[in-house]
């Protein structure tokens, strides 16, 4: 437990600290209550930071570069292979071709939020 005395009674979190805590709370298998205990912060504050990050569009998720186990075979003959492949929870996979229009890519990524 941290005891803060003096005129400033509230704890201040830097943007870097907030980002670290929010990213830890979004990690696969993470439990917000455990993350809160680890960083000595209230769970409601973590949820507030997560909401703010998602609403501002400033939320970044760490990318993991993985070696392809097998080559991607285009669904349409003659089409380019996927440039972006997202593996989502539940085994769902979204692939976006390099030739996809930017507006379509943006719409898909916003829908996945």
Draw up the topology in text.
Layout: H1 15-26, H2 32-39, H3 43-56, E1 82-87, E2 93-97, H4 102-112
Antiparallel strand pairs: 1-2
Helix pairs in contact: 1-2, 1-3
Structure description:
There is one protein chain. With 113 residues, the chain is mainly alpha-helical. Among the domains are: 15-56; 82-112, no CATH class. The chain has four helices and two strands, in the order αααββα. It has helices at 15-26, 32-39, 43-56, 102-112; strands spanning 82-87, 93-97. A two-stranded antiparallel ribbon has the order 1-2. The longest helix is centred in the middle third of the chain and has 14 residues, at 43-56. The two termini are 35 Å apart.
**How many strand units?**
2
Helix content: 25-40%
Figure out the total of helices. Answer: 4
Strands ordered across the widest β-sheet: 1-2
What is the first-to-last residue Cα distance? 35 Å
Outline the low-pLDDT stretches.
none
Inertia-based shape: elongated
What share of residues are in beta strands? Answer: 5-15%
Rg value: 19 Å
Q: Quote the average pLDDT.
A: 76
Run of helices and strands: HHHEEH
Helix/strand structural class: mainly alpha
Main sheet record: 2 strands, antiparallel
